[in-house]
Design a protein that fits this description.
The protein is an alpha+beta fold and about 120 residues long. Helix content is about 35%, strand content about 25%. The longest helix is centred in the C-terminal third of the chain and has 22 residues. The radius of gyration is 13 Å and the shape is globular.
């Protein structure tokens, strides 16, 4: 089932405008917007995504993600194990996608105003 879930995440991510996928380090699939990685997924189903401190803290505090599995600061991990995890991990990728898109446009991100408590 894990491969099916990861395939569903992959199918969605590559439909987002400007997203590319490539082989990443440590046996991962990395998803990039331009030159910036918005996150990657390990073959065991763990997605890792880097966020600014305020967003990171909120995601951890609300239980939407866990601290990085190897303790990397500012990076959250999310395990994709169940069908409902697909939408949840995609919401994390969307959060990063929107941040990078805004930064690429030269706009400020709405990190302080983001409603991170909503789940998809």
């Amino acid at each position: 089932m894990n491969n099916e879930l990861l395939a569903a995440v992959d199918r969605e991510l590559i439909t987002w405008r400007g997203i590319t996928r490539e082989q990443g380090r440590f046996n991962t699939t990395a998803y990039k917007l331009g030159k910036r990685e918005i996150g990657h997924i390990h073959r065991n189903g763990v997605a890792d995504l880097a966020f600014p401190r305020a967003v990171y803290d909120e995601l951890i505090a609300t239980g939407r993600a866990q601290p990085h599995q190897a303790g990397v600061q500012g990076v959250v991990s999310y395990w994709v194990d169940q069908p409902e995890d697909v939408d949840r991990v995609l919401a994390l990728f969307r959060l990063n996608y929107d941040r990078v898109t805004a930064a690429n446009r030269g706009a400020t991100t709405d990190e302080e105003h983001a409603d991170l408590s909503e789940t998809p």
